[in-house]
Design a protein that fits this description.
- By secondary structure, this protein is an alpha/beta fold.
- Helix content is about 40%, strand content about 10%.
- The chain has six helices and four strands.
- Strands 1-2-3-4 form a four-stranded parallel beta sheet.
- Helix 5 links the parallel strand 3 and strand 4.
- Helix 2 packs parallel to helix 4.
- The longest helix is centred in the middle third of the chain and has 13 residues.
- The N and C termini lie far apart (about 40 Å).
Length: about 140
């Protein structure tokens, strides 16, 4: 963390912490080092409730916030990420989604991304319908 402290002191732009954020303690440690913001990922923080709590803490510490998916997640995970982004106190560093990188998704209609924007799905649950045939095609047996 000493390197981060040095970097944040000399950088003319805010430094964002991404891969090192797994808990509220990580957010607090990065804030103490002068980070300007954090990137929150549902899978790294342990789910929606923990990520929302982390967002509230980051906001309290004055940190900018990005909500992100991991690489090549389906529209199911992207829908959860969008829901989180709509629930956090601020989202000033944006939302990073990855479902559109997939050649094929496991939902009937992948979440549309137009002009760099995506809307909160309005259907029940996460707002996406699972394509059971696609799930069957992509199933890997014996793991």
């Amino acid at each position: 963390m000493k390197g981060l402290t040095t970097l944040t002191r000399i950088s003319p732009i805010p430094i964002g912490a991404d891969e090192g954020i797994h808990s509220i303690a990580d957010i607090e440690a990065h804030a103490q080092c002068g980070a300007g913001g954090v990137s929150l990922k549902l899978i790294k923080l342990g789910g929606f409730s923990a990520a929302l709590e982390a967002a509230v803490r980051a906001n309290h510490l004055g940190l900018s916030l990005n909500v992100a998916a991991k690489i090549a997640e389906s529209s199911i995970a992207s829908a959860a990420t969008i829901h989180l982004a709509c629930a956090v106190p601020t989202i000033d560093w944006g939302v990073s989604l990855t479902h559109f990188y997939l050649a094929e998704d496991i939902v009937r209609e992948p979440l549309p991304l137009r002009d760099g924007l995506v809307a909160l799905p309005v259907a029940p649950g996460l707002g996406v319908e699972i394509d059971e045939d696609a799930v069957h095609r992509f199933r890997v047996e014996g793991l």
